[in-house]
Amino acid sequence: MIRSWLRSILVSCIAIMPIGFIFEIISDLQKKKFRQNPKNKDQFISSGLWTWSQHPNYFGEIVLWTGIAIIAAPVLAGWQLVTLISPVFVFFLLTRVSGVRLLDIGAKERWGENHDYLTYIAKTPVLFLNPFLSLVSVNFFCVISRCNDE
Question: What is the pLDDT at residue 75?
Answer without folding.
Answer: 82
